[in-house]
Design goal:
The chain is an alpha/beta fold and 200 residues long. It is built from three helices and twelve strands. It is 11% helix and 24% strand.
């Protein structure tokens, strides 16, 4: 999944990674791509996880995980960080999700009736970043497919997703259907848990 996302990133682009699975992208980006990872708590130049010798409790990402930074990294306040997002200065954002639909809508911040810890910057990112990639497991722990014709959970953003990467394949939301761009090795259309009329 991570390598599929990295293949979509242009050299010298800016990137924001949502909490959870998307943070794994930072650990595998080849240095030749020179990607500038932005964290909405005020860092540009995140470069993955620190070593035991270099870890600092004050150097964290928006998900409160310790990080390392690359030469040339910069630090700024939250208002500047969100100005970068809202001003359209982030090229790509990779977010996790609970549901994503054929219309390109995303639900990733709450399940009604469950405690909400906060939405973070996702609602700003889905409207401010130039490209939105959703990276998620294809099925929930209960076995429910996370790709739906229309989301049933409260939305983070409507018609905002450009690409979807799951453990079963890569998909593009087309409005009423998902286009299958690529299936993982050994995976068939019948294993996707999607009605045939929802897929191209």
């Amino acid at each position: 999944m991570v390598d599929e996302v990295i293949a979509m990133l242009d050299d010298d682009s800016s990137l924001n990674l949502g909490i959870g699975i998307p943070t794994l992208v930072a650990e595998r980006i080849p240095s030749r791509k020179n990607i500038w990872i932005h964290s909405e708590n005020g860092v540009l130049g995140v470069s993955g996880r620190p070593t035991e010798e270099s870890v600092s409790p004050t150097l964290i990402n928006a998900g409160k995980e310790t990080i390392s930074v690359k030469p040339g990294a910069s630090y700024f306040d939250s208002s500047t960080s969100f100005g970068m997002i809202r001003g359209g200065h982030i090229d790509v954002c990779v977010l996790g999700g609970m549901q994503v639909d054929a219309e390109g809508s995303l639900a990733n911040w709450m399940i009604p009736g469950k405690k909400v810890t906060g939405m973070g910057g996702a609602m700003d990112l889905v409207h401010g970043a130039k490209m939105i990639i959703v990276m998620l497991t294809h099925f929930s722990k209960k076995g429910d497919v996370k790709l739906l014709h229309r989301c049933t959970l409260p939305l983070t953003g409507k018609k905002v997703v450009h690409k979807i990467v799951t453990d079963l394949g890569v998909f593009t939301p087309m409005g009423d259907k998902f286009r299958i761009d690529k299936l993982a090795d050994g995976v068939t259309r019948g294993q996707l848990g999607l009605a045939e009329e929802w897929i191209l």
